[in-house]
Amino acid sequence: MTGRFDSIAKLSVVLDDSSLTSYIINVPGQTVRLELARARAASVGLETQVFAARTGDAAASIGLTPGEVGCFLSHRDLMRTIAGQPSDSLHLVLEDDVLFLDSFRPTVERIRAERPRAEVIQLGWIPPPEEATAVGLAADRARSSAAVRRFARLFRNNVTPVRPLLRRAMFGWGSHCYLITPAGAAFFAELLDVDRTIRAPLDAYLRALSLVGGPGFALRPNFPVAVQDPGLPSTIQATSTGLRQIDDRGRLLRHVD
To answer: Which long-range contacts does 14-18 make (Cβ < 8 Å, 24+ apart)?
Structure first.
């Protein structure tokens, strides 16, 4: 297992103009959620395939709900499918409660145009509470401001006028929107297979993926470009996690239109 983890990060492929395959993970029978998700995807120019979600048994885990187990198994099944696709292909994984922000389409187009070397890019996430404080978000917005960066260049020549679109950082919570290559999917599937007992929600494994893949393996934009629709009931758990969503400018969302 260790050898596999050490070597797979070197298999990085360039994200080019190859076809983008988009999947919506949906529990069979949840037709209203599916129709809404497909309509939203079409509005940003995506043609989508439906990937049938698994239902889970809490007995297969440690302290997780059946919904959390089903989410884990669904993404693992999809990773195994993507891992078998051509190495130069690119895949977008969506959950059926995804809601795209205005910057989603230009961000994906820019990613494909700039062709960063990465295996997985988390486009949608919820920052943990400690990262979603008013002060922290204000500081992050300032670092992204072109005016602030121009001023900073007066003192530090290595500051670029425009903050890079993608950066290496620990992923946030959420698996509702991410780009992945077959090599990245193979790595993720293996990470999910480390133990037969599911010990944590999928989000924790996704965050681990951003740490163990090596430099450039996993990236994310400065701010999310997709969020989870708060108007749809969670298929994972009955109660709120208390995590607060931010928009594509790093502002706390009071509501989502």
So the answer is: 14/115, 14/117, 15/90, 15/111, 15/112, 15/115, 15/116, 15/117, 15/118, 15/179, 15/181, 16/88, 16/90, 16/112, 16/115, 17/112, 18/86, 18/88, 18/89, 18/90
